Structures are given as structure tokens and as C-alpha cells.
């Protein structure tokens, strides 16, 4: 199934469409021309790589280039957008049962081909093969979840006005533009595709430049499941083209998972057209260890929380805040457990420490650690590149990080632990809250009531007590502060891009 991953890309490049509806009407073309003629200042979009994107598969285990892909030209992009718009007018009229048949079939195909999907993720961004299988299976769970529950989530809600009757009903927005990152190349797609397709929306998606094969494979998955062309469209596009999509009057909403800089830029640009956005922008989650924590259970969560996906997770444990009375014991056991991790080929089941996604990611992380040490932090272990082929970094622990050190506020997207000692529970909460981010966090204690008290005191979108298990489609995912706004997954996730309309019926005389 995934072996033909470039088929749809080639069709886009050739301008081929199997959709039977006409392209955009003259009125739409007129509006589009006007929107493109007066774009917002392009400097608002952070273009670290320049105006063009490079879509290239490079194996981070050895640095070898696997495959490169061309961007769409403007004519091909216009064809994709007009096809999506035409598809929406038909898709929104389909029943929940018809949509669910396609989305649930996509889930079944994903599970049936889990090894092929996992292999692509491991090749393109270095995810360890067992983690890649887990991601693919969780993505299938998300698709199934919305296929089963969307109709219930979006069913009309009866209200009780003083006179007459009323209800709330929902309808889809239309074409949504989704900008997604590389760290979970399928999960990030599933958590927008599952709810939004079931809600009746259609999606055009710009995935990260380093996972083009995963992006194309996910699009093919939905087409193979029976989705009409235009319901879900992967776009290999430049940053300039992405700006134009945000401005395009056919696009009704924008969802981003990415950096704070990208969030500011995309939200500002979408705001010029008063378009709804959702933003998931990363985090610097606290891992709080109270003095009554069971370290035999806590240490494995500490290792998993920091090292899952090579530490490249928005809601990873990043700031370890430990009460003084237990800090030495925790640190000794934590270091020992981290030292047991074995770097190697992420395709090898025995590997427990994989590479970072790209050489650029490794270079950035090494620089952050060097800057932290230069500003006074103590390097307790690691901090260097691993001497082997590929983009591997030593597991690293930084301590003595003062508030004036950039490391105090920065997000370390990789195997770097920021370790803090605090005197008591109140100090732990205060330090956890002294962050620009507010995505998630966790607290470990044998006293559940105490854990709930701490969880309530930490300003984040998610808190976990004695675990960091966010892998459940029922659980809403999202944050506050610089971690963004809006929620994905759960009932809340499907509500982000639907119009909730009040309908009231009453036989009333007009006021005199």
C-alpha cells in the first residue's frame, strides 16, 4: 500500500484530478485575485529557510538522502484548492454514516499496514520502530474514535427558553488549512483529519519538509479508504504559497502545530481575514516529584517522559522539579537509568536511544546546551554529539539554571533534562508556573489528594498524576500561554471548526 507513496504527488504535479465538479466559479476567481493582489506583509511569516521549502527525505540514522520532491507550482495549487472547495459542497451533504465508513476504513487500512507506515516514519525522522508502530496504531484509534462518536458529539442540543422552543445545531466551516510538524508524522494528521472530516469539513495540509513520504502516504490512505479527491489534500508548497492559502477566501480556518514564532505569524495573518485558528505551540512541561513519591514507579516515567521520541515531544517532561529531601536519590537513580539507554539504528528493536530528526535539529540543541553552560548552568552529564554516524545526541542533564539563563525559559526539543531542586510543594508549583508555556505537566506522589491539589495549582492545559499518558483519543489535548489555544481530540476537538447555530421557534407578537 505505502509502496506507491509518490503516486498522488505525481498526479498533483501533472495537474490531474479525478473530481467531476467544475473548478471555482468566476465569482470565486475574482475574490481570489483580489485577495492575492493585496497580501499581508510577507515578513509576518517566519521564513527561516527562505521563501521556498525543501521536501526531502534524509535518513537521520546515517545522513543519507532517500528521496526529494518538487513543490507544486501556482497552477497546481489553484487546482488543488478549487477541487477542495468543490468537494466540500458535496462532502458536507453526506451523512455521518457515509463519512464514518470512509474514516473507519482508513483506520483499518492503517492497522493492516502498520509496519509499512512505521518504517516510513523511522526512515524519514528517526523514530524508533516500536514507537513508530505505536504512533500508527494510535492514529488509527483516533480515526475510529471520531467515526464512532462524531454524530453524538455534533447532535443538536435542546434548550429551554421561557417561550417556545430552541436548539443548537452545528454545520461545518468548509476548507481548512492545516500546518503540521514532523515529530509525529501520522498522529498530528489523524488528530485533525479524524474530527474535521467527520464534521463535514475538508482539509488542505502542509506537512513538514523532512517527512514528505509520510505526508503523501497519509493522503493515499484516505483516498484508498474511499475519500473523494479534495476531502484531504497534501500540499508540497512554499512558505509564500502557504501565506496565500491563509489569505484565500475559500479557506475558512487554520490549524497549526508548530513553533511560537510560526503561531504568532499564522494567527496574525489569519486574523487579517478574521479566520478562526487553533494553535498548539509546544511546551516546557514540569515533572514534579514530591517527597512521598514512589521512585521505583517514578523513575521509569521520568525516563519515558523525557526520552520518548528522542525527547522531541511538545508535552514531554522537560523541567524536573524535585523536592530537596528526595532530590539526591532521584537524581542518582535517574542518571543510572538514562545511562542504560543504548544508541543505535532506530530500525533495530533493541535500540533504546534513537537519533534526532535532522542534523539541523541536533545542531540547534547542541548550541542551546552550550549557551546554557556559558550562562552559568552546570552540565551534569552528556551535552555532546554521540560519536557515530547520524544525528545522535548524548542524554544530557543541566542543573543550577538561574532565571537569567536563557535555558530557564527555552524549550529543549531533544534529550536534555533541566533539573531543579525546591524546598516544598508551594515552591514546586511556583516554579512550574514560572514559564512562558502552559501545555502539560505531571506530579508524582503517593497521596492522590495532594497530587490533585498540585495539579489544580499548575497553570497548564493538562496535568497528569503519577503518569504522563496522553495517548487516549477521549482526552482533549492543548494548552495556554505560549503553548497556544484551542483543543484537539475528545469532544472538544471536533467543536473547533464548526458553526454552532441557535435556532428558536416561538409564536410571539412583535414589541409595541
Helix content range: 40-55%
Spatial sequence of strands, sheet with the most strands: 12-13-14-11-10-16-17
- DSSP summary: helix tally: 16
How far from one another are the termini?
69 Å
Amount of beta strand: 15-25%
The number of strands is 20
| Low-confidence segments | 1-50
Q: What general outline do the C-alpha atoms trace?
A: globular
User: How is the biggest beta sheet arranged?
Assistant: 7 strands, mixed
Structural class: alpha/beta
Mean pLDDT, as a whole number?
92
Q: Oligomerization state of this entry?
A: single chain
Please tell me how large the radius of gyration is: 24 Å
Please describe what this structure looks like.
- By secondary structure, the protein is of the alpha/beta class.
- Helices cover 41% and strands 18% of the residues.
- The protein contains 16 helices and 20 strands.
- It has helices at residues 7-13, 26-37, 74-91, 96-112, 114-125, 129-153, 187-199, 212-224, 239-247, 260-272, 295-307, 324-339, 359-374, 425-433, 448-457, 490-494, and strands spanning 55-59, 64-69, 157-159, 165-172, 175-179, 202-206, 232-234, 251-257, 276-280, 285-289, 317-323, 378-381, 396-399, 416-422, 437-438, 441-444, 464-465, 480-481, 484-485, 498-505.
- The strands form 5 sheets. Strands 12-13-14-11-10-16-17 form a 7-stranded mixed β-sheet, with helices on both faces. It has a 6-stranded mixed β-sheet with strand order 7-6-5-8-9-19, with helices on both faces. Strands 3-4-20 form a 3-stranded antiparallel β-sheet, with no helix packed on it.
- The longest helix is centred in the first third of the chain and has 25 residues, at 129-153.
- The model is unreliable at 1-50 (pLDDT under 50).
Amino acid at each position: 500500500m505505502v509502496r506507491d507513496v509518490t503516486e498522488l504527488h505525481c498526479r498533483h504535479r501533472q495537474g490531474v484530478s479525478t473530481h467531476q465538479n467544475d473548478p471555482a466559479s468566476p465569482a470565486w476567481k475574482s475574490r481570489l485575485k483580489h485577495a492575492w493582489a493585496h497580501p499581508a506583509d510577507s515578513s509576518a511569516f517566519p521564513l527561516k529557510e527562505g521563501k521556498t521549502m525543501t521536501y526531502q527525505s534524509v535518513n537521520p540514522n546515517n545522513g543519507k538522502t532517500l528521496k526529494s520532491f518538487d513543490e507544486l507550482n501556482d497552477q497546481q495549487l489553484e487546482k488543488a484548492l478549487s477541487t477542495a472547495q468543490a468537494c466540500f459542497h458535496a462532502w458536507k451533504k453526506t451523512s455521518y454514516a457515509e463519512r464514518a465508513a470512509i474514516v473507519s476504513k482508513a483506520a483499518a487500512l492503517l492497522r493492516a499496514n502498520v509496519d509499512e507506515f512505521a518504517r516510513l516514519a523511522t526512515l524519514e525522522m528517526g523514530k524508533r520502530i516500536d514507537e513508530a508502530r505505536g504512533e500508527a496504531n494510535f492514529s488509527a484509534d483516533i480515526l475510529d474514535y471520531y467515526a464512532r462518536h462524531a454524530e453524538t458529539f455534533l447532535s443538536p442540543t435542546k434548550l429551554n427558553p421561557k417561550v417556545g422552543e430552541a436548539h443548537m445545531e452545528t454545520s461545518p466551516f468548509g476548507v481548512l488549512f492545516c500546518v503540521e510538524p514532523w515529530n509525529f508524522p501520522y498522529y498530528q494528521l489523524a488528530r485533525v483529519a479524524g474530527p474535521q472530516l467527520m464534521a463535514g469539513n475538508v482539509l488542505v495540509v502542509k506537512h513538514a519538509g523532512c517527512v514528505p513520504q509520510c505526508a503523501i502516504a497519509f493522503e493515499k490512505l484516505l483516498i484508498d479508504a474511499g475519500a473523494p479527491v479534495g476531502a484531504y489534500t497534501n500540499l508540497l508548497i512554499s512558505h509564500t504559497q502557504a501565506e496565500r492559502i491563509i489569505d484565500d477566501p475559500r479557506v475558512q480556518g487554520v490549524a497549526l502545530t508548530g513553533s511560537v514564532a510560526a503561531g504568532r505569524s499564522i494567527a496574525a495573518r489569519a486574523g487579517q481575514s478574521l479566520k478562526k485558528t487553533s494553535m498548539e505551540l509546544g511546551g516546557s512541561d514540569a515533572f514534579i516529584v514530591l517527597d512521598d513519591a514512589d521512585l521505583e514507579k517514578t523513575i521509569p516515567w521520568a525516563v519515558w517522559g523525557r526520552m520518548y521520541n528522542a525527547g522531541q515531544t511538545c508535552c514531554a517532561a522537560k523541567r524536573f522539579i524535585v523536592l530537596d529531601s528526595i532530590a539526591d536519590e532521584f537524581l542518582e537513580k535517574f542518571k543510572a537509568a538514562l545511562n542504560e539507554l543504548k544508541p543505535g539504528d532506530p530500525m533495530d528493536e533493541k535500540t533504546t536511544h534513537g537519533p534526532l530528526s535532522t542534523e539541523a535539529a541536533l545542531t540547534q540543541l547542541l548550541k542551546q546546551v552550550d549557551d546554557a553552560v556559558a550562562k552559568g548552568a552546570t552540565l551534569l552529564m552528556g551535552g555532546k554529539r554521540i560519536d557515530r554516524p547520524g544525528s545522535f545526541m548524548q542524554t544530557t542533564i543541566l542543573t543550577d539554571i538561574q532565571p537569567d539563563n536563557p535555558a530557564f525559559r527555552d524549550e529543549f526539543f531533544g534529550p536534555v533534562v533541566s533539573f531543579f531542586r525546591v524546598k516544598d510543594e508551594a515552591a514546586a508549583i511556583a516554579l512550574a508556573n514560572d514559564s512562558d508555556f502552559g501545555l502539560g505537566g505531571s506530579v508524582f506522589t503517593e497521596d492522590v489528594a495532594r497530587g490533585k491539589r498540585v495539579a489544580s495549582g499548575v497553570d497548564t492545559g493538562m496535568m497528569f498524576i503519577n503518569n504522563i499518558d496522553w495517548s487516549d483519543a477521549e482526552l482533549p489535548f492543548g494548552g495556554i500561554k505560549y503553548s497556544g489555544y484551542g483543543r484537539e481530540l475528545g469532544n472538544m476537538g471536533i467543536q473547533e471548526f464548526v458553526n454552532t447555530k441557535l435556532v428558536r421557534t416561538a409564536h410571539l407578537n412583535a414589541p409595541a
